[in-house]
Amino acid sequence: MSFLGFILKTLVRQKVRTWLTVLGISIGITTVVALGSVVGGLKETSAQLLRAYDSDFIVAQKGASDLSFSAVTEEEWAAVDARDDVERTVGALLHVARAGGNPYFVTVGVRAEDLAKIDLNIRDGRLIAPGATDEVMLGVRAADKLNAGVGETVELDRRTYTVVGIMKADSVWEDSGAFAPLATVQEHAKKPNVVTMIYVKVKPGLDRHEVADAIEDDNPLLSAVADVDEYSEVDQGIVIMDALNIAISALAVGIGAIGVMNTMVMSVFERTREIGILRAVGWSGNRILRMIIGESLALCLIAAAVGTALGVAASRAVLYIPAVGSLLEPAYTLDVFVRALFVAVVVALVGAVYPALRALRLTPMEALRHE
Q1: Of 220, 123, 201, which is closest to residue 163 (Cα–Cα)?
Q2: CB atoms inside a 10 Å sphere around CB 218
Q3: Which pLDDT score, from 0 to 100, does residue 314 have?
């Protein structure tokens, strides 16, 4: 029998204990994978938000706890738009409205003349007309969920709009939401003369970071965000989620290590005579050590596989929550799976330390006398 086969056979002998340990560890791995993929999706949504409308960066209120709470006055917007180093700007007001059974429908208020500056992929219909107050453009996903086509009406926050266009957007939040006249959204949101953010396109040949820094220098209350790494300046949500992800990974290591240690200690205690026989027939302490660590690693790698599968399933399941499904798609990056594997390996090594040391301290004679 091979060394690996011997390890697996040992685990199979204690099926209930083995699978209970695998289950406990896999729950931690599930959380790591699910949360990691959701955080990754949130970062991708943030990146899409920054890249929207062929802009170079966005300008929002400095220090906002959440981007949706950002408030940039139309006077501040006009000052940015009038700059010599800026080619064009588009102001947008984000408002979460109720649409049908979805209380988290993202509505973007934009001026009709600004929509004409945006390269929209219109599948059907037209842009919102200048001066219109009750027209709306829906993303493809939104139109499908609301079962609405061009010429039909939809109700957003108890106000009836006529659908004049359907567009296909690259970002989830746009494809699942709608464009509406800025003045109308300002009225609904009770935010007169305010936008959430300004999309800025700099003039050709200029460095976007230098222009962004100049705008911040001239407007102390505003923050220009050109990259996802700078997103925390206008939204603390991603920072909090990242910290939560790290904390849960650490918690999974701690709880998992205790579970593995308990299993391996019991295994070593019950197999004291067996370990003594192995030592008596020539097994070295190093090989005993590799056996204990190998069993621990096998447990945790099985748990990693089960937990990863469950984590992917859980992250897909959360998309059925309207607040999540309308804003992001989970991102299954290599980093997510590497972190899950890293947690499993660390759990295995930490959990195997004490049982392995206990097994090494047993002399063959002492082990054989054990009852």
Answers
A1: 123
A2: 11
A3: 87
Q: What are phi and psi of 173, to 5 degrees?
A: -65, -30
Backbone angles phi, psi at 154, to 5 degrees: -130, 155
Nearest CA among 258, 306, 292, 266 for reference residue 22 = 306
- Asked if 124 and 108 touch (Cβ cutoff 8 Å), the reply is no
How far apart CA 260 and CA 120 sit, in angstroms, is 54
Tens digits of residue pLDDT in 177-197: 889 999 999 988 889 999 999
pLDDT at 47: 72
- Across the range 244-273, mean pLDDT stands at 71
- According to the model, what pLDDT value does residue 194 have? 92
With 0-12 / 13-18 / 19 or more C-beta atoms within 10 angstroms meaning exposed / middle / buried, residue 190 is exposed
Distance CA 28, CA 310 (A): 10
pTM (2 decimals)? 0.71
First to last CA, the chain: 27
Encode the chain in three state secondary structure. Answer: CCHHHHHHHHHHHCHHHHHHHHHHHHHHHHHHHHHHHHHHHHHHHHHHHHHHHHCCEEEEECCCCCHHHCCEEHHHHHHHHCCCCEEEEEEEEEEEEEECCEEEEEEEEECHHHHCCCCCCEEEECCCCCCCCCEEEEEHHHHHHHCCCCCCEEEECCEEEEEEEEECCCCHHHHCCEEEEHHHHHHHHCCCCEECEEEEEECCCCCHHHHHHHHHHHCCCEEEECCHHHHHHCCCHHHHHHHHHHHHHHHHHHHHHHHHHHHHHHHHHHCHHHHHHHHHCCCCHHHHHHHHHHHHHHHHHHHHHHHHHHHHHHHHHHHHCHHHHCCCCCCCCHHHHHHHHHHHHHHHHHHHHHHHHHHHHCCHHHHHCCC
Greatest CA separation found in the chain?
94
364 Cβ contact list (under 8 Å, min separation 6): 276, 279, 280
